[in-house]
Amino acid sequence: MAVVRWATLGAVALAASLPLAARGEPCVPDPTSDWISQVPLGTSPVQVRPADCAAVEQTPPDFSWPDHDADARYTVTLTYPDGTSRSRAAPQNWINWDEALPAGDYAWRVRLESGALVQDSRARRFTVRADALPFVVPDADTLFMRAVAKPHPRAMPDAVTAQAMIEQRQAGLAQLYARVDAGLAAPLAPEPSGLPQDVVWASHEECLRTLEAALAWLATWREEYFAEALRHALNLAAWDPAGSTSYAAADQASREIAWTLALAYDWLHARLDANQRGLLLAPILARGADMYNDVIGARARVATYPYDSHGNTTLTALALVCVLVAGDIPEAYNGLAKTLPLALHWTSPWGGEDGGYANGTAYSNWDVGARLLPWYALRWTVGVDIAQKAWVRNYARFLAYFVPPGSPTGEFGDGAELTLDPRFWGSLGKAYAAFSPSPLARWYAAQLPGADPSLLEQILAPLADPGPAPLPAGTPDAAFFPSIGWTAMHSALADAQRTSVYFKSSRYASYNHSHADQNSFTVVAGGVPLAIDSGYFDGYQTPHWWGWYKQTRAHNAITFDGGQGQRVYESNGYGPGTVTRFAHTAAYDIVQGDATAAYGGALSDARRSMLYLRPDRILVYDRLASATPRTWEWNIHAAQPMSVASQSAIRIDDGGQSLCVDLLAAPATAFTQTDQWSADPASGAPQWHGTFAAAQPGAAAEFIALLRVGCAPVAAGAAKQDGVWTVTLGATTVTIDGDAAIAVQ
User: Fold this and answer.
1) pTM of full prediction above 0.90
2) Which CATH fold topology does 32-134 show?
3) C-alpha angle 443/445/449, rounded to 5°?
């Protein structure tokens, strides 16, 4: 029997992503403190990119660092593989380097100047990989001149491509025409009022009616479609920018109205008279100014504090508004200069080049969906193809591994429990794959049913390749995303009836739409969620959101002393989790996370290791310690009541699938379950929350749990001798030493 060391495999897997020094040794990150590492997270929680020893697949990489203070100015010095250096001034805490860098090893440092303070950072090294793709952002003047040089309609491809798109999308266009025809005699929507979410939805409906009519006109030149589009556009323009749809009252609504008016202005431009153009431009300017003051202001707020889901979407929308009205509104030049280079720089702050999205799969769908039309327009208007950016290219991996075809729900974060609507997920996958058509993206899109061909994102997507789209040969059944600390392990990625095990230990901690669920896991089998993240997304910062949904006790994670868990704190980087080991083989996967910091000093050790033995066995090992004795709790959640075989064994049955959980080793425990919440959701079916709780407090504890998908019997046991655990699982033997290193035989 082959023996594979968990610790050794994990170290090799992580080291493989690091560049090699000239002498052939792995690059080891320098722990030396400098002014960059000393900026408090609450001041500017910006990641250092590229990190020391990073291997980048975008050239040039994105350069960013925490903002020291409001008066700070910076100089970035880049040292090339041949030892030469070049410096560039950066007025703020990021820079778009102006050239593609050849493959090789580089170093960079940042000089801080603020008043009399002048400090140099230490050098940070990175390697441009041989397969890195160029993504060079032109300067603001070049971007502006490209926008002005293109006649309206700017947000459209060339005439030949547009005609090919029309011919390829007749079915979707027919549905769109039918919707527009049905509304030709309908009264205009009044300016909405009520709760912000009601205002946002009502505004969205009127914006959609406007753009669908405008696109129908561009595709057919039928006069009634122009009149309908203009009727709705002028209706939106008449809504008070300082009223119920103002940016202060409903930022999402105001943002969508501004973007819609700008797009309508661009698409209808050839037929608009001077008065009509003025009626549209005035609210565009007013709403755009509010957006600008929020995300840019005196010193670009989103640059200093990028982890703002609404702010980043606003940044991209405003950048495109400025592109569409460039040359028509004087303020558009400054707006474009301050927003578009920054929007291209960040794209998404929720992950790194690996394509990860730390805010959860639901928000990845919503955010990327909101950006597709702007991304198309950027390609058409200023010649910037954001599909070449590493995060955008690799987002297909995130989708394929965390919402693979056949998934019933998403994973982790706000909205993860929502049933996946094929109409929207299929449309997103197909539109995204057309925009950034990697082999994996095309395979993913080809598996998705139910896409709506009449959505604007579908009709305006780049021409799709109609050929076969098989799963690329050699695609592994597991993936680790280092930038967000997420791991997906599947019995067979290509099988819609797969078993999937998801693990999270993230540096993004419980910030924004993420939860206090470091070192947690979920299990899905045959399209049925078995070990679930519990709770319901009934709104942002609702009592349920604060009191249950976001708390550690709502997840399959460790709590203590009656449900106490990780810190729920809205500051990125506070109390992060870390994936310290990951290994993938054909027979099994191993992942280990350290969530000690996430407990805010309450614990001195909180490490979890998971061994997934394909296809149906999962071993979970927890090692816990505290200076104060704790009553340790091992939590498991399900959508159905759990059957209790003993105080150390339970079973979950749902939808013809089952999951058995056996504690092979633990302190003396008692199992309880309840369908009650610490704070009730606004709606949602009951869920069951199980806890194996230690009978007595202890300063340390170890749990070894065996999870069996399908509940097939297996002879299992665990014994400890001389600090080493030996776990038997039928013919498989697993050893766990004092440092949580595991060997599988």
Assistant:
1) yes
2) Immunoglobulin-like (2.60.40)
3) 120
